[in-house]
Design brief:
CATH class of one domain: Alpha Beta
CATH superfamily of one domain: Classic Zinc Finger
Shape: elongated
Largest sheet: 2 strands, antiparallel
Distance between the termini: 59 Å
Number of helices: 13
Strand content: 5-15%
Radius of gyration: 27 Å
Oligomer: single chain
Structural class: alpha+beta
Number of strands: 28
Length: about 400
């Protein structure tokens, strides 16, 4: 790793700079001293070069990657991404950077260090720029407005990506599978699916990830952090997205309807996954056994079958599990929790599947039918045991079930 001897270190966050003038400008991020006004908006900045015009026009385009910018100076800075040598390498994951301070900021991803804290909420960030962007969430400032609709954005990148929706523009194409993306970052993450590269490694265990965000979420598992709580049932989650998905459980409305079978869903993503059952589309293929899946989460679960990995450990008895759901069910044994209650009697169960099987004893429903005789059963296990009787009677070593 190349480290210059004239580096200046910020006492507040530990970031290094090449000279005292750069450090002086950076210190204003901590002090909140932003004295230069933008003529196009009420935004302020610490340096004249940081004051930008807020416009939907992005006339300056990069010839290498087609990314567009509002100012030629920003374009010139961007072009160095394609031309400059990356001489600073991360010791943890070997990702290389053009500048030492970029590498220094990146290292915080591995150690979970977030020195830039929001004084209005509990959020913290690895870089001062991320904190500045986050503050717009509290102020409600949306300076970048779409000229084709009424939508406005906190950041110019958000507007640029949004405009591509109107234009149907997906300029970033995967050379392996021809899949296209609206953002270069999405393409970079997608390419790692083909290469198997996982540059973001956990310093607490041997797990590695394709995206930095996935590593952040994983570290919360080690720390036991679940800051997002459901206001209806008090269930807690590691990330806000999981909470938002969970809230659909409490919704009664299912506005997304399948045009082929009339099944309805609470989210568009659930409908999209369901449609693959009709089309037979299986995008995610196991490189070991060739089995294909219609959802990425299903192949991730399947891969643990090959690796034998059991990352979810019970802190009360050290028992380990392949899936978080199995651990959650196991924890109910220690807590003596049986949240699934029968509405027809006083029985309660640890798993929803057990309740469904029990409910059939009241309704008389027997969905598991033997294809060799007319018998039917309330549980799949009872059908399996019954089929073994046929096998023994006929002297078969195995029986082929109908497809």
């Amino acid at each position: 790793m190349n480290i210059h001897t004239d580096m200046q270190k910020c006492a507040a966050c530990g970031t290094y700079f090449h000279g005292s003038s750069d450090l002086a400008v950076h210190r204003k991020c901590h002090s909140g001293d932003k004295q230069i006004d933008c003529t196009a908006s009420d935004k302020q900045s610490t340096t004249p070069c940081a004051v930008v015009q807020h416009s939907t026009e992005l006339p300056h385009k990069c010839h290498e990657c087609n990314k567009a910018f509002s100012k030629v100076g920003v374009l010139n800075k961007h072009v160095t991404i394609h031309t400059e040598e990356k001489s600073y390498k991360c010791d943890v994951c070997n990702v290389a950077f053009r500048r030492f301070r970029e590498m220094h900021s990146h290292i915080r991803v591995h150690f979970g260090d977030k020195p830039f804290k929001c004084h209005l909420c509990d959020k913290a960030f690895t870089q001062s720029g991320y904190l500045s962007r986050h503050m717009r969430v509290h102020t409600g400032k949306k300076l970048y407005k779409c000229q084709m609709c009424d939508k406005a954005f906190n950041f110019s990148q958000g507007l640029q990506t949004h405009v591509r929706i109107h234009l149907g523009d997906k300029p970033f194409k995967c050379l392996v599978c021809n899949k296209v993306f609206r953002q270069s970052g999405q393409l970079n993450c997608h390419i790692r699916v083909h290469t198997g590269e996982k540059p973001y490694k956990c310093y607490l265990c041997d797990k590695a990830f394709r995206e930095s965000g996935a590593l952040h979420r994983h570290i919360k598992v080690h720390r036991g952090e679940r800051p997002y709580k459901c206001s209806v049932c008090n269930k807690v989650f590691i990330q806000s997205y999981n909470l938002q998905t969970h809230m659909t459980v409490h919704m009664t409305d299912k506005p997304f309807v399948c045009c082929m079978c009339d099944k309805a869903f609470k989210s568009s993503s659930s409908l999209k996954s369901h449609m693959r059952l009709h089309t037979g589309e299986r995008l995610y293929k196991c490189p070991i056994c060739g089995r294909a899946f219609n959802e990425s989460r299903k192949i991730n679960r399947h891969m643990r079958f090959h690796s034998g990995e059991k990352p979810y450990k019970c802190h009360l008895c050290n028992k380990a599990f392949s899936h978080s759901e199995t651990l959650a069910t196991h924890m109910r044994i220690h807590l003596e929790d049986k949240p699934y209650k029968c509405k027809m009697c006083d029985k309660a169960f640890r798993q929803s599947g057990h309740l469904k099987s029990h409910t059939r004893s009241h309704t008389g429903d027997k969905p598991f039918k033997c294809h060799m005789c007319d018998k039917a059963f309330t549980e799949s296990g009872a059908l399996s045991r019954h089929i073994k009787v046929h096998m023994e009677q006929n002297g078969w070593s195995r029986v082929l079930l109908p497809t």
